[in-house]
Amino acid sequence: MRAKAAERGVDLLVVDAGDHHDGSGLVSTSPESAIAADNIFAQLTYDVLAIGNHELYKYESALDVYQNNRRGRWGGRYLTSNVNITVEDGGKAVSVPVAERFAKFETAQGRKVTAFGVLFDCELTRSNLTIQAPSKLAHEAWFLDAIADAPDFFLLVGHMPGRGLTSEWTPLYDAIRSLHPKVPVFVFGGHTHVRDCVQYDDRSIALVPGRYLETIGFVSSNLPNAEDDGGPLDMNRRYLDANDVSYQYHTGTDKDTFYTPLGRNISSALAQLAQDLNIDTPFGKVPHDYFLSRHPYGHPRSVLTLLADKILPEVLEDESRNGSRIIIGNAGSIRFDVFKGPFDRNDELTVSPFTSAFLYTRLPAFLATEVFAEMNRAGASKLLPTTAREDVEDRVTRIYNDWLADQWEEHVAATLLGGDDDGLAFGSPDKKPHTLGYVTRDACKGRGDDIPHIPVPFSRDQV
Q1: Which residues form the Calcineurin-like phosphoesterase domain (predicted)?
Q2: Which of 233, 368, 404, 447 is deepest in the core (most CB within 10 A)?
Q3: 399-458 pLDDT tens trace
């Protein structure tokens, strides 16, 4: 893609908005495995990277970013504008930026860029890792100095949404606009797991591609020329399904010409890492797919039903404990579907990457049976203080589930009424979707989804 951009005399920038850790066996087996995976991913050449909240749940993960940045791994392009780490320097503990605060560079076509990497204020409880609220960052002397000179465009990359709850771009955007009303501003966000796009004005755009690596977010725009009249810029976005078919189509290649030596080397290194971590040996075979949210709890194809009826009763076995028992767990600990076929340690950690601990106590039966209903009625946070991590993860899950529910319920309503919401969304009957996937309704003009899909079925009844 960079070669194609060069042929056309345009720039292509590749950015990453954070959260490399927690998600699959490669990065969830241990802090060391996550570091090893990062060593492999570092073979890719990014223009800007930012840190995510999952890189801050373990001090070792943030320390690895800090140390590798000092070694020059990312060429000064890993940006942590508002995240500090406490390290030892000359026998004293000092708080310093995890990586670079900002970057100024020129693109291949000679355009000047001023870039920042920002994380929302997720209120970490660790004393050795701190996050400065973006509202305070916007008043820092070094930040104001960094934005004083007008580049060809500002590039803001960060692990937070473009709008809504936990979106904290506004103070930074306002600070830039107070000095440079017409300089283009490109914002690339993340965290909430939904595809979304919004324009703050006619010379800015904020794109959030979705969760995990299911989507590649793509933004295109013309830039002002020397005779700039200050008018609106033509800014567009597209959500690409992250798979080989999409990649080959947009690169103009096929299965014989798409794969590069670098790509094959990365695939080989990841496969070797999986073998070294012993996460690719099957435990057994899954007879059919189980889904996290397509079916209500109690349905035989629900992951939560499988967990409650089959897994927990066998795993939590203690012959020394007599009498009836009740197991109460947080459904949020399960993060993904289970697919038919071999099931190994990597699948286990993909479905549930966090360490789980079970506490035992004895209660009168009449009281134990009321605990579950009371927790769901009041909310766990009302009964016991939760950690910032639990609050953040629960909020993301709610936002993502509401997004899925809206897609499915809109589709069902249109179908029951005899309408054709999918045909309308994609312009003509011949483009009517045939596969399941995301159906995005964002705040930017035109169609965003690269491939039309039927919404994924969703059930709100998960408890």
Answers
A1: 7-194
A2: 404
A3: 999 999 999 999 999 988 765 555 444 445 556 788 999 999 999 999 999 999 999 999
The model's pTM: 0.89
* Interatomic CA distance for residues 171 and 88, integer angstroms: 32
Is 398 within a domain? no
Domain that holds residue 301: 288-339+357-386
Tokens of 216: 């590649």
What are the pLDDT digits (tens) for 448-463? 999 999 999 999 887 6
Contact (Cβ atoms closer than 8 angstroms) between residue 151 and residue 104: yes
Residue 358, class by beta-carbon neighbours within 10 Å (0-12 exposed, 13-18 middle, 19+ buried)?
exposed
C-alpha–C-alpha distance, residues 332 and 25, integer Å: 18
Q: Check which CATH number belongs to the domain holding 44 and give it.
A: 3.60.21.10
CB 239 within 8 A of CB 438: yes
Tokens matching residue 272: 């070797």
Do the Cβ atoms of 406 and 160 come closer than 8 Å?
A: no
Rounded Cα distance, 106 and 85, in Å: 29
Domain co-membership, 237 together with 319: no
Tokens 């969703």, located at residue:
458
Q: Tell me phi and psi for residue 196, to 5 degrees.
A: -155, 155
- The residues with which 16 forms a beta bridge, in sequence order, are 49
CA dist list (Å): 331 to 28, 44, 311: 19, 35, 14
Task: Report strand pairing: 112-119 vs 102-106.
Answer: antiparallel
Q: How far is CA 405 from CA 114, 187, 239, 443, in A?
A: 38, 27, 19, 18
Q: How far is it, in rounded angstroms, from Cα 451 to Cα 241?
A: 7
Whether residue 92 sits in one domain with residue 222: yes
- CA nearest 332: which of 278, 400, 265? 400
